[in-house]
Amino acid sequence: MRYQIENRLIKFSVSIIKLCRNLNNEYVSQHLANQIIRSSTSSALNYAEAQGAESQNDFIHKTSIVLKELRETHVSLKIIKQSEIVVKSNFYDDLLEECNELISIFHKTVKTAKANKQSK
After folding, report:
1. Is the pTM of the predicted complex or chain greater than 0.70?
2. Using CA atoms, how far apart are residues 35 and 40, in angstroms rounded to an integer?
3. Domain 2-119, what fold?
């Protein structure tokens, strides 16, 4: 399961990078591309760090960062779509759906980890 989630996060980040290659060349497009690439890749990188967490608190903290970065990516995707700066993309809706699913997974992960910590 761990590697499935890691691979999904990596695939999602790569798909975001590909989406950004299809943005127009305006300043605002480049600004949003930089931002969404940072937040999407950060979610994958922070998940990798969470796998080596030194404590339960550290795991909760790092998975909370993953969740935060995914939420930021989700909002960036919406801004990109509504501002109509995508030159062409057949997979935008798939990215939004995957982002929603990943947010749900990490929301549950953080919630479960916090509950497990309290029950000890």
Report:
1. yes
2. 9
3. de novo design (two linked rop proteins) (1.20.1440)
